[in-house]
Amino acid sequence: MSEQSASVLRKIIHIDMDAFYASVEQRDFPEYRGKPLVVGGKPDSRGVVATASYEARQYGIRSAMSCSKAYQLCPTAIFVYPRFDAYTSASKSIREIFSRYTDIIEPLSLDEAYLDVTEDKLGIGSAIDIAQSIKNAIKNELNLTASAGVSVNKFVAKIASDMNKPDGLTFIGPSKIKGFMEKLPVEKFFGVGKVTAARMKAMQINTGADLKKLTEDQLLAQFGKSGKFYYKVVRGIDDRPVQSHRETKSVGAEDTFAEDTDEDSVMHSLLQQISVTVANRLEKHQLKGKTITLKIKFEDFKQITRSRSFSNPINKSDIIYCEAIKLLNEADIGLMKVRLLGITLSRFYEDLPLEKEDNNQLEFEF
């Protein structure tokens, strides 16, 4: 059994849709089925891969890869732009299925969520049976597939959901957690990106067993606050509750130029469009922000951000646009060519009602 006390064991399910955007496209357009499909834009659109179908992944295509690179890997792939309305609609239907079993649902994005089914609405009892029932409903009602991970905490359930994709169901019970965590490669740990993983491996920390040899103080000294989390989860301890209400932290939008530019008029025009998009999203969610952040990505893919905070919150497109222009001017980019611009509003006004949203951060490339 894990070192987490049996008295606090919960039944946690992590549901992760399989190649969600691509699967919705293949569901809605039969001509895409069984073919390598890339959602993100055309090969010459300078976009990035949002999702690739499993057929496309066989060629090495992955999320966040440039569409041009994806085309090089698979010239016969079908490239389409995202349809966020369709994905949002499917996500709402998936959420409705979740709510048949529990009200304790924590969405992480449109295509994944945690569910606490320690006490389920239908009295099924078995988290494994509930997960299978949810998967069946998603497949039968929406013609989509999901993978599920089941365990006693969020960390292990999330890792389990990725173990047998697509259309998998993996249960890691209390007696298996210790061995599972010790064998887990460090790059699979929450919060461990490429840089941290490389740093750990340089310290001869390759697996959970290696990580477990370090004291909490040693981990804190090496990795800051994350060290405390690593110390706990490698011992099977994750006390984080499933949060059924997650407040939106930021609302933003960004867009990539068709060609890199250093022309003020072109950048100003795009910032105006983005400002309108952000303002519409803020209005939809009844939000005003006290901090505006401008994101600038250059032709060499390096990026910078510039922010300004206000005493009074804002949500009007003209004000957002004016402040974004000021931040752009203050960035003093000179003759450097710009690839992408983005605007984000955060620090929302406390007196306004907050609508809950699928994503903790609402930011899409449009």
UniProtKB/TrEMBL annotation:
<keyword id="KW-0963">Cytoplasm</keyword>
<keyword id="KW-0548">Nucleotidyltransferase</keyword>
<keyword id="KW-0515">Mutator protein</keyword>
<feature type="active site">
    <location>
        <position position="112"/>
    </location>
</feature>
<dbReference type="InterPro" id="IPR043502">
    <property type="entry name" value="DNA/RNA_pol_sf"/>
</dbReference>
<dbReference type="InterPro" id="IPR043128">
    <property type="entry name" value="Rev_trsase/Diguanyl_cyclase"/>
</dbReference>
<keyword id="KW-0479">Metal-binding</keyword>
<keyword id="KW-0808">Transferase</keyword>
<dbReference type="InterPro" id="IPR036775">
    <property type="entry name" value="DNA_pol_Y-fam_lit_finger_sf"/>
</dbReference>
<dbReference type="Pfam" id="PF11799">
    <property type="entry name" value="IMS_C"/>
</dbReference>
<dbReference type="InterPro" id="IPR001126">
    <property type="entry name" value="UmuC"/>
</dbReference>
<keyword id="KW-0460">Magnesium</keyword>
<feature type="domain" description="UmuC">
    <location>
        <begin position="12"/>
        <end position="193"/>
    </location>
</feature>
<feature type="binding site">
    <location>
        <position position="16"/>
    </location>
    <ligand>
        <name>Mg(2+)</name>
    </ligand>
</feature>
<keyword id="KW-0227">DNA damage</keyword>
<comment type="subunit">
    <text>Monomer.</text>
</comment>
<dbReference type="InterPro" id="IPR050116">
    <property type="entry name" value="DNA_polymerase-Y"/>
</dbReference>
<keyword id="KW-0238">DNA-binding</keyword>
<keyword id="KW-0239">DNA-directed DNA polymerase</keyword>
<dbReference type="InterPro" id="IPR053848">
    <property type="entry name" value="IMS_HHH_1"/>
</dbReference>
<protein>
    <recommendedName>
        <fullName>DNA polymerase IV</fullName>
        <ecNumber>2.7.7.7</ecNumber>
    </recommendedName>
</protein>
<dbReference type="InterPro" id="IPR017961">
    <property type="entry name" value="DNA_pol_Y-fam_little_finger"/>
</dbReference>
<comment type="function">
    <text>Poorly processive, error-prone DNA polymerase involved in untargeted mutagenesis. Copies undamaged DNA at stalled replication forks, which arise in vivo from mismatched or misaligned primer ends. These misaligned primers can be extended by PolIV. Exhibits no 3'-5' exonuclease (proofreading) activity. May be involved in translesional synthesis, in conjunction with the beta clamp from PolIII.</text>
</comment>
<feature type="binding site">
    <location>
        <position position="111"/>
    </location>
    <ligand>
        <name>Mg(2+)</name>
    </ligand>
</feature>
<dbReference type="Pfam" id="PF00817">
    <property type="entry name" value="IMS"/>
</dbReference>
<feature type="site" description="Substrate discrimination">
    <location>
        <position position="21"/>
    </location>
</feature>
<keyword id="KW-0234">DNA repair</keyword>
<dbReference type="Pfam" id="PF21999">
    <property type="entry name" value="IMS_HHH_1"/>
</dbReference>
<comment type="similarity">
    <text>Belongs to the DNA polymerase type-Y family.</text>
</comment>
<dbReference type="InterPro" id="IPR022880">
    <property type="entry name" value="DNApol_IV"/>
</dbReference>
<keyword id="KW-0235">DNA replication</keyword>
